[in-house]
Amino acid sequence: MTNPVFSLKEATVTVPNGTTIMDHLNLDIYPEDFITVLGTNGAGKSTLFNVISGDLPLSSGRVEHNGEDITAVPAVKRTAFLARVFQDPKLGTAPRMTVAENLLLAEKRGFRRTLKNRQLTAKKLEKYYDLTKTMGNNLEDRLQTATGSLSGGQRQALSFLMATQVKPGLLLLDEHTAALDPKTSDQLMAATNHQVKDNHLTSLMITHNLKDALTYGNRLIVLNAGKIILDVRDEEKEALTETDLLRYFTR
Ligand SMILES: Nc1ncnc2c1ncn2[C@@H]1O[C@H](COP(=O)(O)OP(=O)(O)OP(=O)(O)O)[C@@H](O)[C@H]1O
């Protein structure tokens, strides 16, 4: 069997008031896994992402990347292989910079970000045109527009492209379509799915949308009280229904 890209082993987080918000959690993430992450409010979904990204240190347990112990590696260093897209369209992009400038900046993920000595050549603009066109929301016509005046859907599409332009070893999608209207959300989910598949990305996606959790990805996990209470993949996932899932939300 293939080795995991990323693992949590007996990962536990106890916060200063004594509450354990991640409880001896074990998770092996394999190459090209697209894992949808479900759970009630407070189940520990953001905690899981914060532990993976290194923003929240473990109280005990281990974090491994390609078999190497990275428990003590800080968040800033983990950006060399990890990218995250947030729910808030304002996060992840620089509002005064244009779409093209943001994409140029994103090419430096994992390195010191500066636009010094880097230019938006005609070739680059052509590349960004083709890239943004794949999102299906006219972002390609707004390459020279300041990001702050894009629609929420266009801005989230840009955040997604910025996170994936330099292929991350692991992509964290943190309810990235939740702030969008249903049609725009569906459009970004479909574009996300294409990009994840076409670029063979390994990713986790937090969602409260049961339909999306069932439709997308090869694997689904449900969290409750800082533990994984369901972990299914392939045929087992495909056989799941919304009614099956709702049972995990009544605990
Ligand atoms: N840094 C922290 N210090 C103290 N408590 C925390 C911290 N981070 C999270 N918690 C607590 O841990 C629990 C899990 O929170 P978390 O944000 O991971 O849940 P969630 O599943 O993402 O919820 P939601 O769906 O509402 O976003 C909550 O009770 C939360 O208050």
TrEMBL record:
Signal found in the keyword field: no
Keywords recorded for this protein, A-Z: ATP-binding, Cell membrane, Membrane, Nucleotide-binding, Transport
Subcellular location: Cell membrane
Topology versus the membrane: Peripheral membrane protein
Principal cellular location given in the protein's record: membrane
Domain ABC transporter: 6-250
Gene3D superfamilies, A to Z: P-loop containing nucleotide triphosphate hydrolases (3.40.50.300)
SMART domains named in the record: AAA
Protein name as catalogued: ATPase component (PhnK)
